[in-house]
Design goal:
This protein is an alpha/beta fold. The protein has eight helices and eleven strands. It folds into two domains: about 1-105, Response regulator (Rossmann fold, 3-Layer(aba) Sandwich), CATH 3.40.50; about 120-219, Orthogonal Bundle (Arc Repressor Mutant, subunit A). The strands form three sheets. The protein has a five-stranded parallel beta sheet with strand order 2-1-3-4-5, sandwiched between helices. The chain has a four-stranded antiparallel beta sheet with strand order 6-7-8-9, covered by helices on one side. A two-stranded antiparallel ribbon has the order 10-11. The mean pLDDT is about 80.
């Protein structure tokens, strides 16, 4: 999932973004004033909106988002009335624990409606997001914490071509240096565990663009 987090408080936005990225999500953070412009430039799978009483309405952002689900955050429930109606938008009342927040986000995953939202499956690859456990073809695959985050990021964005700069930013929170093979080395190590022992390869290189995780055998 690619998430747009709308949060005017820099420290709060940074804290939530870092926690989401560490759990494999792709996250952009925008202020209330910049959110609509960002939503026009990219497609997001989830909006997380921090709303406050007296703040400008975000109806334009919700209209641009179309069918994308929305998670609302607020310190005062009265702010919900000012936002305007949005069907089935859950709301977390501050203060809340990060685990509660993360569980709510996971329940809004694309695969959450058809099984356990803590388990992601593509072909015979399975990621248990709660226990940080990976299996393929029923066999345990031992990954380092960073390899699990990298694989989780690829799985959440299955079918999307991800550039090296996006991977570096979202998984390591660093700017990518095009003169290094930093990302390629980590992808190669991940492939050695997830793909090399199996006939059906899931992690593919898109020349000049980056990497994509998809089950091409099912196409």
């Amino acid at each position: 999932m690619k998430i747009l987090l709308v949060e005017d408080e820099v420290q709060a936005g940074s804290h939530l973004r870092r926690g989401l990225v560490e759990n494999g999500f792709a996250v952009d953070v925008a202020s209330r004033n910049g959110a609509v412009a960002m939503a026009r430039r990219a497609r997001y799978d989830l909006f997380i909106l921090d709303i406050k009483p007296g703040a400008p309405r975000l109806s334009n952002l919700l209209a641009i988002g179309g069918e994308a689900p929305v998670l609302l955050l607020t310190e005062e429930s009265s702010a919900l009335d000012e936002l305007g109606p949005h069907p089935l938008a859950p709301c977390l009342l501050k203060p809340f624990g990060f685990s509660e927040f993360l569980n709510q986000v996971r329940r809004m995953l694309p695969w959450a409606g058809s099984g356990n939202p803590m388990v992601a499956r593509i072909a015979d690859l399975e990621l248990d997001l709660e226990r940080h456990r990976t299996t393929r073809g029923g066999r345990r695959v031992d990954l380092t914490p960073k390899e699990f985050l990298l694989l989780g990021f690829l799985v959440r964005n299955a079918g999307r071509v991800l550039s090296r700069s996006v991977i570096a930013d979202q998984v390591w929170d660093i700017n990518f240096d095009s003169h290094t093979n930093f990302v390629d080395v980590h992808i190669r190590r991940l492939r050695s565990k997830v793909d090399d022992p199996f006939a059906n390869k899931l992690i593919h290189t898109v020349r000049g663009a980056g990497y994509v995780l998809e089950d091409r055998a099912a196409a």
